[in-house]
Structure formats: C-alpha cells, structure tokens
C-alpha cells in the first residue's frame, strides 16, 4: 500500500532505599527515609529545560507579515530546510500581495509564497537566504505521545519571540476549518496558541516539530497540523505549488450504540455510510443510508458500515480520514470491507483527486 505518507505533568522519581538481608548474620533495614525531590528544584529544572529549548530553536522561528488589499495580517513560521523554505499556515498568507518575514536577530527578508494547501492549511514561503543560526527544525517522526511536554513558539498578538509550555493533550483529532473542511490527524495541546501564533512550531523539549500551530478552540485547547501530515504535504508544495489529496466521495457517521441498534448491528463499531455524492468514487459501489427512526430518534439506517480499509480496522470517521490522507493517493484502488445486510462484503473503490474548492 502506498503512503500518502505543553504546565507539565512532572513525575517525581522517589528513590527507595532498602536494607540488604544477609543470611546467618544480621537482618537490618536501612534507616534512610525516602525523600521526594524539593518542588522548587523540580520547577527550576523544568523551567531550565524550556529556557534551553528556547535558546536552541528561537533562531529558526520567524514573524510573518502580510500586506494585502484587505489589510495587514501577521502570523508565524519556521525554517524548514537549507534552501530558504519557511513553513506557515495557508490562512496566514492566503490573501497576500506581499509577504515579509523577520528573524529573531531582527533581520528582515522578503518572501515569496511558493505553495499553499487549503485542505491542510499549510503553506511554504521562500526567501533568498536565512541568517546564520537559523537552522531547519526537524519534523518529529516518533517519540511523542499524549502527555509529552511541548512548547509553542511564535508571535501571539504581535508579541514576537514568545514561548508557551504544555503537553500533547491528544492525537489524531479532526479540526474543522473556517472553510468548512476537516483537517485530520491534528495534534491537541494545552500550550497557549493565540492569534499570531498560527504557522509557528509546536516542538518537543528536543526541538523536534510535532505540529504546525494552527488555532485555539477554547481555554487550554489548541490544535496543530501534525508532523506526519506536514511531512507528506510540504515537499509537494515545494515541487508543485499545491498538493493533491485522495477523494473517496463518502460522508460517514461513527456507529454509536443507537445507530448500531437501529441497524441491527451486534456492536457499535465502524462508520456508517450516510451519503455517496452523485458521480463520486463510491457512488454505486457503497450503499448509502436513508433517514429513519429508532425509539423516537431520527437516525440513518440501511447503509453500509465500513469496518476496514485494506485490512486496516476503521472505528471512527477520524481513523478513515487519517488513513486516506496519509496512506493513499489519488487514482489508487482500495479494498473497503463493509457490513451489509448482516454479511461482510469487500468492495473496491478507486479514489479520485479531491476537488478544487474554488472550482
């Protein structure tokens, strides 16, 4: 199968000292009492870790200034490679007539927008050169999970060179954009993300990017486009100026206990096919649902229930979206296993290219 490939909770380690039992001589427990590390020491060490991180990566973080007919705008970004490419959000530069970036040392550069993708809200800028000390930030491939300490860097509310701390609060989230698209595989964090932070990096204490900061959706709830998604899309934006994404042509709903009962399913698993738009890849291949009623509740009934794609179990809309975005490509044929009339049936769906939203 082809790929379409932060406070912190601190664990205080308490050393437990125990006496050794020497047979035939003496059995005597140790007299030392286990001691927790002083809280002020822990706070100092944690703060120092973030201070070190800041010193390490701030030179790679930029302020993005946009001049447009609709008025000026501002966001953040970070150095992606040694070829002058800078990552930011598509929504930061979408109306740009002129873009300038400012590095942490105060240097300004004029930037060209060379690639944008509305479906992932990613964009790539290009400058002629970057100042010394502005090293590319690596995209994390592994080593982070829920609870991992992270920091969001950028220019919130115009406050340049800011850092906020937190943790990875959740993974594989879906985030709905202002254009009513859903970005799969986003990273949830409690690190502060405000206006102006958009496009900046969300990094581990090792300085690896786990996500591209995008937006906040409530107190202590922020989201970033995942490193995995960025790794897939950014090279394509640099090469082609845009990115193609697979389109399955299906609307789905997670199977809840109510939907499972209404459809005579043994357990609530998989996703129910609600609609298959006319002319789409799944039209005539997968069975869509009809509106029905169960115990006085309006529900969708009668449609196929997708339980796996290419042998990979699917238990939520997020899982389906993530699989399609990261592991498939347009024009690829996938095996979709569904529950239909009490039987497991495997159908083949040939993916199309996701339509241009401006078309």
UniProtKB/TrEMBL annotation:
SMART domains: PDZ
Domain PDZ stretches: 246-342
Superkingdom classification of source: Archaea
A GO MF term: serine-type endopeptidase activity
A Gene Ontology BP annotation from the UniProt entry: proteolysis
InterPro entries (alphabetical): Chloro_Bact_Ser_Proteases, PDZ, PDZ_sf, Peptidase_S1_PA, Peptidase_S1C
UniProt keyword annotations, A-Z: Hydrolase, Protease
Name listed for the protein in its UniProt record: Trypsin-like peptidase domain-containing protein
Gene source species: Halorutilus salinus
